[in-house]
Structure formats: structure tokens, C-alpha cells
Amino acid sequence: MARTPLQKKKLFLFDIDGTIAVGDTLFDGSAALLRHIDTIGGKAYFITNNSTLSGRDYVEKFRRAFHLETSEEQFITSGCMTIRFLTEHYAHSKIYVLGTASFIRELRKCGLHITETAEDDISCAVAAYDSELNYQKLIQACKVLSTADIPFYATNPDLCCPVDFGFIPDCGAICNMITDSVGKHPVYLGKPNRSMVDLCRSLSGFSPEETLVVGDRLYTDIACGRNGGVDTCVVFTGEAKPEHMADTPYPADYCFADIKELLAAIKESSSA
User: Fold this and answer.
1) How far is CA 53 from the centre of its chain?
2) Measured distance CA(21)–CA(14) in Å, rounded
3) Residue 59 is inside which H or E element, if any?
4) Are 17 and 162 in contact (CB under 8 A)?
5) DSSP 128-170
6) For residues 197 and 217, is the Cβ–Cβ distance under 8 A?
7) pLDDT in single tens digits along all 272 residues of the chain
């Protein structure tokens, strides 16, 4: 698929952690790029595999930490996609979930029947990034999946989550522990599933040619864009490094050192 020139892009789908920010620090150029998107009549969405925060949580974080005004509909999280999936397929079923208290509350607010322990009549098991993880939770997850022949889902396959000092285990790493114990692999509902791209395009009305996925991780962010049939851009401020480009099944259409360099390329392309 031939890539579309950057000046044609109007819909920007940004990963957050490692791409436009890390922790409470907004990367240089991120605010300027978001302002530029507004000036060209474009739209920015934030597609993140972090399921610990809701759209409302992110709006507050962007205001408090980054001094940026956003709306809830701009945040498409793996938690959001998981809720949509479970509501469609398991609305009247008992669901086992390994996740944070906040994520459990979001699921229950949507009317889903959630349990955090091994019980009878569980229809499926779901694992999420869990910053409150303990060994008892892992035991319960293994018990559920070992004693019942049920589907196993997870929010996202990310192995590590960027933090200010480096990385910590993410949902993919948690799932690997469970898989190594019970022999069952999850179906991931967040990136690289193309559903995030499809939802953002449906909400905004922009075409595939006008869309660009921007992220720092090849096997989730870039794979998501490729799966969704749109152009992709990797920035080297998170997990991916320039040397990874030589041997990857998920090559990006555009590669930049950071968001500031991407913005410069967009402006240069527009003035050419």
C-alpha cells in the first residue's frame, strides 16, 4: 500500500504513553501538533491500551498535567473496546475479570455481571493491565481458566508500560504468566485489533487516506494501523528503536525521532 503524503492527513490517532507523553510529562511538540491539527480542520483521537483510566480520567489528567482541554470521546482505550465487546457478547453472563478496582467499576457501571473470584457459571475470563496485581489474583485467574472450558480475553498484548524511570510489566506480561501456567492464550481486544481504527474513522468521518496512526510500539500501535488499512508513523521516544526497523513484520510508513520532528515534517510537506 502506497503511503499518502503527510499534508493529506486530517485524522490523527495517537498512542499516549511513550508517544506524546510519559507519566505526567508532555513531550516537546505534542501540544503544538494538537494545535496544528485544529488549524487544518482535523481531528485527534487518543487510542491507548492503558485500561486503568477511563475517558473521564484522561480528560482530567490532560487538563491537570498537560494543560490541554480534551473531550471524553477523544479517548478510545482498550478498556473501552473491551466493554463494547463484552456488552455485545456477554451482556447477560457472569464474567471473571482480573483488573484494577477502577476498571471493575467501569464494567459494572455498564451493567455487566463481574466476579473477581472463581465461581460456578462463569462464561469467559478477561485480563487487563493491573497496577494493583497480587499473587492471589493470579491464583484466581489460573483457577478459573483451569477448571472451566471458557474463552480467555485480554485488553492488550503490551509487554511493558513506559514510566518515568523506564518500563514496568503490562497486560501482555501478566497474560504470559497465566498462559505459561494454564496453557491458554488470550484473544486481545485492544491494539493491534483494527477495531480502534474503525471506530475512530466512523466517529470522525475521515477516509483511510486521511488517517495516520502515531505510536511508539511496533507490535501494537503500528500493527493496529496496518490492520486497519491506514498509514502509520513510529516515534522513537518509547519502546521502538531505529535498529528495530531493519527486521520487523510491522514496518511503519513514517519514522521520526519524536513528535516535534513529525510536526516539522507535516509543516514542510504542507508548504511544499
Assistant:
1) 11
2) 11
3) helix 55-66
4) yes
5) ---TT--HHHHHHHHHHHHHS---EEES---SEEEETTEEEE-
6) no
7) 458 999 999 999 999 999 999 999 999 999 999 999 999 999 999 999 988 888 899 999 999 999 999 999 999 999 999 999 999 999 999 999 999 998 999 899 999 999 999 999 999 999 999 999 999 999 999 999 999 999 999 999 999 888 889 889 999 999 999 999 999 999 999 999 999 999 999 999 999 999 999 999 999 999 999 999 999 999 999 999 999 999 999 999 999 999 999 999 999 987 76
User: How far is residue 243 from each of residues 67, 190, 246, 255, measured CA to CA in Å?
Assistant: 34, 26, 6, 12
Locus of grid cell 494454564:
182
pTM: 0.87
Residue with cell 516515534: 235
- Could you give phi then psi for residue 115, rounded to 5 degrees? -125, 150
Strands (E), the chain: 11-14, 21-22, 25-26, 43-48, 75-77, 94-98, 113-115, 122-127, 152-154, 160-163, 166-169, 187-188, 211-215, 231-235, 254-256
- Nearest 5 degrees, angle CA 216-CA 192-CA 257? 15
Q: How many CA atoms lie within 13 A of 267 on its CB side?
A: 13
